[in-house]
Amino acid sequence: MYQMLESFIDYYGYLDNAHKANNLVNSVSLEDNVYNYSSNLCHWYVHLMNMEDVVREGDVLRLIPTLKYSLLFFFSHSRLSKYFVECLDFILKTEYILSPMQKMRVLEGVFVNLRGGLGQNIECDLVQENSVRNQKDLIRALGANKTNEAISRCTKAADTVSDICSKIDKSKGVKKPSSRHHTPKSVKDELVIHLSLRALRPFLKEKVVTVMVCQMLQLPHF
Predict the structure, then answer these.
(1) Nearest to 157 by CA among 179, 134, 141, 124
(2) Of 53, 109, 193, 221, which residue is least crowded by CB atoms under 10 Å?
(3) Which residues have a Cβ under 8 Å from the Cβ of 105 and sit 6 or more positions away?
């Protein structure tokens, strides 16, 4: 997805036309919906790429400003979003409640590096979720022998068992199941989208209202 959006930005000249559009904001009374949608798409793409870079580098200085910017997205999605609540709670605690030493401990504890090397950090929450998944797999494998002692024993060894199994699969050449789509891309559909965008010129701000209407296909009922 990131590669597709990056190619989209480079090919259709988002950055080349951004400064031209800023000069027209005050002089244009009507909105260009196509330009707004395309710019918003690229805007949040750059934000997601920045979030990914913050995690990989373990940059505690950019973490809080990035989360503050993410509040707008979470709030616009839903006022009752749990991500909005957790993000706001994290910002308030690290910025106003915790002491400087506790704040630094919390920020540094957000990331973890399991393999070593530069730019190899991942989210600590993601590691915990993977650990819980490994524990559930072993508990499910117990079948009818689910006792408190058996569950406690297998959950303690869950990460070690998962590591051993992954190394055995790697030595045997067994590939890890991927969650990506296995359906090949449709060249015909990509060509239609390409020609439509070239004719539309989404990053050239117009002084007229552009309305995009999607018509539903009348499919026969079976």
Answers:
(1) 134
(2) 221
(3) none
Per DSSP, the residues of 139-201 read HHHTTT---HHHHHHHHHTHHHHHHHHHHHHHHTTPPPPP-S--SPP-HHHHHHHHHHHHHH-
Instruction: Identify the burial level of 54 via C-beta atoms within 10 angstroms of its C-beta, where 0-12 means exposed, 13-18 middle and 19 or more buried.
Output: buried
Query: Which helix (DSSP H) or strand (DSSP E) does residue 118 occupy?
Result: none
Digit-by-digit pLDDT tens for the chain (222 residues) are 456 656 665 665 555 544 444 444 444 445 667 788 888 888 888 888 999 999 999 999 999 999 998 888 888 888 788 889 999 999 999 999 999 999 999 999 999 998 888 888 999 988 888 889 889 988 988 888 888 888 888 888 888 888 898 888 888 888 877 666 666 667 788 888 888 888 888 877 765 444 444 443 344 443
